[in-house]
Amino acid sequence: MQLFDPQASSQLIPVLNLEESEVERQMTICNACRYCEGFCAVFPAMTRRLEFTQADIHYLANLCHNCGACLSACQYAAPHEFAVNVPKAMAKVRLNTYVEYVWPQPLGKLYQRNGLTLALASGGGLALFLCLTLMVMGNLFTAIPGGNFYSVFPHNTLALMFGAVFGFAVLALTIGVRRFWRNVSPVDAPLPLKTSAALEATANVAQLKYLDGGHGEGCNNDDDKFTLWRRRFHHFTFYGFMLCFAATAVATLYHFLLDWSAPYPIFSLPVMLGIFGGAGLLVGSAGLLWMNLRRNPEQGDENQKPMDRGFIALLLLVSSSGLALLALRETSALGLLLAIHLGLVMAFFLTMPYSKFAHGIFRGAALLKYSIEKRLPNPINAGSD
User: Fold this and answer.
1) What is the dihedral of CA 249, 180, 59, 379, to 10 degrees?
2) pLDDT (tens digit, 9 = 90+) per residue, 265-302?
3) Are the C-beta atoms of 375 and 196 separated by less than 8 Å?
4) By the number of CB atoms within 10 A of the CB, which of 52, 132, 148, 230 ranks highest?
5) β-pair partners for 220
6) How many CB atoms lie within 10 A of CB 5?
């Protein structure tokens, strides 16, 4: 009787690719050294493992915030023969996971290779389409009293268009993170979700805790000096986006529940949320683009830059066009600016599941897994008892 079939076993255990094998090699070295154990969540999570499966590697890669602190401190980094560079190795795997778990996959592969081109082309194409539509309607350069953009595009038309696009983005992101979670979490022993773990993970996401380098001084970017500006620009971007989302949500409640139609006064809640959110997005995305252009090639994966810059460029264009639309909404430029802004926003939501936005969702799931498993007994210690 054949008790073990090697071929069947190989079908159960995924074969590591080159990038994953490199992370496994480096984690094995780091697990023996453990000098960086206090730097971020990656290293405590690493110490709970003696071997690293593909699921472990995908989990650790998305747990890594690419702050670079471990590279600057590593005694086994190049020119040492071990050539340990955890940020770069993790970034290469992380880029692959975006494509592996995304839905549908062909769109993820397209964005991975041509992120900047695809983002700008989709935004420009949709904006041009809306401009041509308004040109045919005769509303492209028509001043409208009060800046009522619903006179340009009816409310129900916009709600249908953006509701469909936003629904697709949410569906695609949900499928992607569900695939990721099912792969990195044990099927035979589901992780017990506790309120304390969920609250801790939420706080870590909101604070961007692990962009402080583990010592509170920040990340490395273009040299070995630590800086907190990467964390600050991420905060501007994240909370700017959330304020813009809140502005849209409040305006929707005004329209449907209170029957208050736009345009709203400058000091109304939706407009003020939009102003502060747009300003935060503008500062954050401009800062992140500046830091990305100056980033040391050793601090991450060069192949990820098109995806990074495509996402940042869209955020920068969305925020700047939105603020320009608000400032000039009572002029003849209303139609043109509205078409450009709406085209860019629609492109942002269409590409959101395949852009760097998805990395935030996967990282949030990895942080949740970390918060859950740290509350469980260490399997290494349990095995030695």
Assistant:
1) 110
2) 999 999 999 999 999 999 999 999 999 999 888 888 88
3) yes
4) 230
5) 226
6) 9
